[in-house]
């Protein structure tokens, strides 16, 4: 089978791993993407790596033949709508032998949906967010736009099939108006940068990480460390993490909460880190809450390994790689029921899911695991469950379903 993948910025995304996994299973892959290494917004940089065929245009430059149309449409459609549309039309024309295309995201899917009105091809749109869907959720900074909502629903209805990356994503799509019979759930995969193959002795790695992180942040060696690892934005529910932690910490003074992630300015709030610091002060646990700022992706597993427990209290999180990374270094997670990756991590014994957003309930869950310890589990179990070739095989089943017109 020959598969097309439409994924702008593929080298800075998770999607190159999946393209390589499809090749490893014996399939050819043609990729449309955008990158600074291409010389033009009009002409493709074309090259092959093994069985990956790349079609690349520059990620910023406009096509000179569509420059005027791009400028006129910029207030409504972005800075180079027609440049992208023409480039993608040329890509689809050049790859007519593809059996099916995976399109990563609804905005790039908008271009594909337009072209599908004039060109014949089969495609699956892959959805990894709940943005612009009409959901019964409220949190500061939630993006809303009636016309973008309409575009998203049109794209969902135009594709041959919709791939949701979790059951949380599926439920959000259904609540937002997508027909449930059009949706298939296939999780995301373990990425190359997440792998822990080089760690030969996990207990020794965790002990060393514990010592290093505790020393770096002046945490007593006997202190129990809880960690969060995410962008500092309201949708991640970090206010609940602090309030739930405070419930447990008031009865367990040896607890510390480390909040890892870069600050964000939130409309109507300002610095979200400063708001979280105020919550910690109001709860009386400011001295036990540590803000690290952004943690380099190469350092994340060391922080996860150093922790006794991870908290993932998201308001809605369509997947959440943090719970996967924590499981891989054998750190247990307490997650909300709106964390997409939660069921897969729970299945291998690496997480418990706490429904609702009551700080008292979260505090009791924290206390339970602090007091009784974490049940043993193997980090390799989640790696095997979400191994790229396994997920690629699941995606190929969707492709065959569409190609054979069983939908």
Question: What would the keywords be for this entry?
Answer:
single chain, about 400 residues, alpha/beta, Rossmann fold, 2 domains, eight-stranded mixed sheet, six-stranded parallel sheet, 15 helices, globular
Summarize the entry for a quick read.
The protein is α/β, with parallel strands linked by helices and 407 residues long. The chain has helices at residues 15-24, 67-77, 81-94, 106-115, 146-158, 167-176, 202-216, 238-249, 272-282, 300-306, 321-328, 342-347, 359-372, 379-385, 388-403; strands spanning 2-6, 28-34, 45-49, 52-57, 100-104, 123-127, 161-164, 183-185, 224-229, 255-260, 265-266, 270-271, 289-293, 309-312, 333-336, 351-354. It folds into two domains: 2-189 and 387-403, Glycogen Phosphorylase B (Rossmann fold, 3-Layer(aba) Sandwich), CATH 3.40.50.2000; 193-385, Glycogen Phosphorylase B (Rossmann fold, 3-Layer(aba) Sandwich).
Question: How does this structure look, described?
Answer:
Helix 4 links the parallel strand 5 (100-104) and strand 6 (123-127). This protein is of the alpha/beta class. Helix content is 40%, strand content 18%. The chain has two domains: 2-189 and 387-403, 3-Layer(aba) Sandwich (Rossmann fold), CATH 3.40.50; 193-385, Glycogen Phosphorylase B (Rossmann fold, 3-Layer(aba) Sandwich). An eight-stranded mixed β-sheet has the order 3-4-2-1-5-6-7-8, sandwiched between helices. The protein has a six-stranded parallel β-sheet with strand order 13-10-9-14-15-16, sandwiched between helices.
């Amino acid at each position: 089978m020959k598969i097309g993948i439409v994924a702008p910025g593929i080298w800075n995304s998770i999607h190159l791993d999946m393209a390589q996994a499809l090749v490893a299973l014996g399939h050819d892959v043609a990729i449309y993407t955008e990158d600074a290494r291409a010389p033009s917004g009009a002409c493709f940089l074309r090259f092959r790596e093994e069985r990956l065929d790349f079609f690349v245009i520059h990620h910023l430059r406009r096509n000179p033949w569509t420059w005027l149309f791009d400028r006129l449409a910029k207030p409504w459609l972005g800075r180079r709508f027609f440049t992208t549309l023409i480039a993608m039309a040329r890509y689809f024309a050049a790859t007519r032998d593809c059996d099916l295309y995976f399109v990563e995201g609804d905005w790039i899917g908008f271009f594909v949906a337009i072209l599908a009105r004039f060109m014949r091809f089969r495609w699956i749109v892959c959805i990894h967010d709940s943005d612009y869907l009409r959901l019964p959720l409220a949190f500061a900074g939630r993006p809303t736009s009636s016309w973008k909502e309409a575009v998203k629903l049109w794209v969902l209805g135009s594709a041959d099939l919709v791939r949701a990356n979790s059951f949380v994503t599926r439920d959000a799509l259904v609540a937002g108006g997508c027909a449930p019979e059009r949706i298939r759930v296939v999780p995301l995969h373990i990425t190359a940068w997440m792998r822990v193959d080089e760690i030969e002795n996990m207990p020794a790695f965790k002990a060393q990480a514990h010592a290093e992180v505790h020393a770096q942040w002046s945490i007593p060696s006997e202190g129990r460390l809880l960690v969060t690892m995410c962008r500092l934005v309201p949708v991640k529910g970090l206010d609940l993490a602090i309030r739930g932690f405070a419930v447990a910490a008031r009865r367990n003074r040896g607890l510390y909460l480390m909040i890892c992630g870069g600050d964000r300015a939130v409309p109507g709030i300002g610095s979200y880190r400063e708001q979280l610091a105020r919550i910690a002060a109001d709860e009386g646990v400011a001295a036990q809450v540590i803000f690290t700022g952004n943690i380099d992706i190469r350092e994340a597993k060391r922080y996860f390994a150093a922790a006794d427990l991870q908290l993932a209290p998201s308001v809605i999180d369509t997947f959440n790689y943090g719970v996967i990374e924590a499981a891989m270094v054998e750190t247990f997670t307490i997650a909300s029921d709106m964390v997409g990756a939660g069921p897969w991590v729970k299945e291998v014994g690496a997480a418990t899911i706490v429904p609702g957003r009551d700080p008292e309930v979260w505090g009791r869950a924290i206390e339970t695991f602090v007091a009784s310890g974490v049940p043993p589990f193997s980090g390799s179990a989640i790696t095997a469950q979400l191994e790229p070739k396994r997920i690629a095989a699941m995606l190929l089943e969707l492709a065959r379903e569409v190609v054979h017109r069983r939908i």
